[in-house]
Each structure stands twice: as structure tokens, then as C-alpha cells.
From TrEMBL:
One Pfam short name: YaeQ
Species of provenance: Polaromonas naphthalenivorans (strain CJ2)
Protein name: YaeQ family protein
Superkingdom in the source lineage: Bacteria
InterPro entries the record matches: Restrct_endonuc-II-like (IPR011335), YaeQ (IPR009822), YaeQ_sf (IPR038590)
SUPFAM superfamilies on file: Restriction endonuclease-like
SMART domains per UniProt: YaeQ
Segment forming the signal sequence: none
Amino acid sequence: MAIKATIHKAQLQIADMDRGIYGDHNVIIARHPSETDERMMIRLLAFALNVPGDDKRGNLEFAKDLWDVDEPALWHKDYTDAVLHWIDVGQPDDKRLMRAAGRAERVSVYSFSSSTPVWWKGIESKLTRAANLIVWQIEAAQSQALAKLAERGMQLQITIQDGTVWMSTGSESVEITPRRLTAGG
């Protein structure tokens, strides 16, 4: 019998001063049995960094990347089912990213492993045609600190200002500064 996903619920209070987006979001995350707390929290971070200010062009949703290779970690689809923004986490291969770049208006990757520089050096030259791709590196120490905030039920305050993110539970806080690795997007 297959192990089922673990359901996590998060109440996010987002204050994104860089984009002028403020709001409360209740999200449900189905955590695949093979997913770590660190990866799940990077998905939450990616949600906070990319949630649209309104739903006029659809919604940002958690997808089923660990269950279905044709889906990202998150995607923003419009009401016609066109993919506006494909968001992956981790270190996807160049073929996956080129397919995503052809399918979506924008593609973002949030890589959080200490091996990110090695991974990126190996595929960077293969992605020069993907002008709609942005790759972000989250320092491993920051993503590991973020993993410590993970719980089955979370209330998180997320403040984004000048490219820095503060994610807080009220009693604990983590500062994350994503570093852009690409010139595209």
C-alpha cells in the first residue's frame, strides 16, 4: 500500500512592500512522502514571492510536481488554463526547464541546496534561449532555518522588502535573501 500525502495547512499574512501586495491566504499543502520540510517551506516561500495581487488573471496554485512530471511545484494559470507562471523548486534539468519556458509566459526556479552553484554551472549555457526564465538561489543555511518553522498547522507572517523576506511564526523568525542567478525573465 502506498504512503499517502500529509496535509499541512498554513495561514499566511503577506506584506510584500516591493510589489505593493498585501493579503491573507489560507493554503493547504499536500506534502508528498518523499518531500522534506525544507522543500515544502521553499514552496511556501515561492508562493509568497509570486502570489498575484488579485485574481483577474487566475490564481497561483500548488501543483503536483512530485506526483506528475508534467506539473511544476506551483503554477499561475488563467481562466482558459493557459500557464502564466511555472514555478519549480530544487534543481530541475535543462530539458524540463526548456519545455516549461515554451509552455508558460514566465518560469521561475527556486534552488535551495548547497550544490546550487554546481548545478547551475552545468546547465546555464543550455538555457540561453529561455529569455522568460529566472533562477533564484536560496542559501542552504537560510532554507534549513526555514525548515525549522514547518508544522502541520502554521500561522506565518511574511514581510518582503528590498528583496529580503522575513518569515515569522511570532516566536521565531527567519531572514531569506534570494539571489538571482539569471539575467532573463
